[in-house]
């Protein structure tokens, strides 16, 4: 069964709402035959990444960059997963109060280095997530999960 790994750093109520919407989309009953695994960014291992067929990344934008937790996750998995995960699809959702461009650029640089394939546009939210923003998170989860269906 294909596995979708959600690697997230969820330190705030806004990130929690976005995370829950992503999980809801990825686990929609219409998505069949895809196992969804959730890992906190500080707990993810190379084995988690190697055993997954696709990825969803969630991070706040702190001081204009991805969270230290997501950066740590990339530091832990980058070289052990570099040659074995090329071509796998990923999506990303970010929350910031201002200046998310650095976080977007950082995630793009690292996932490009890993050779992952962007499966959908990033969902970027500033301030309190609106109903439309949460729907976009749901769509992101559903889109990446559906691409893994057998």
UniProtKB/TrEMBL annotation:
GO terms for molecular function: oxidoreductase activity. Residues 49-125 form the NADPH-dependent FMN reductase-like domain. It comes from the Bacteria. Gene3D superfamilies: 3.40.50.360. This is Flavodoxin. The gene is fldA.
């Amino acid at each position: 069964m294909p596995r979708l790994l959600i690697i997230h750093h969820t330190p705030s109520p806004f990130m929690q709402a976005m995370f829950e919407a992503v999980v809801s989309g990825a686990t929609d009953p219409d998505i069949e035959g895809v196992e969804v695994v959730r890992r906190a960014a500080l707990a993810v291992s190379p084995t988690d990444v190697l055993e997954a067929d696709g990825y969803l990344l969630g991070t706040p934008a702190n001081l204009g960059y991805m969270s230290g937790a997501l950066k740590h996750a990339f530091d832990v998995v980058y070289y052990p997963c570099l040659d074995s995960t090329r071509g796998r699809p990923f999506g990303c959702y970010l929350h910031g109060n201002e200046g998310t461009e650095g976080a977007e650029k950082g995630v793009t640089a690292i996932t490009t280095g890993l050779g992952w394939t962007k499966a959908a546009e990033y969902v970027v939210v500033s301030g309190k997530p609106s109903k439309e923003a949460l729907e976009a998170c749901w769509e992101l989860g559903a889109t990446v999960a559906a691409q893994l269906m057998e």
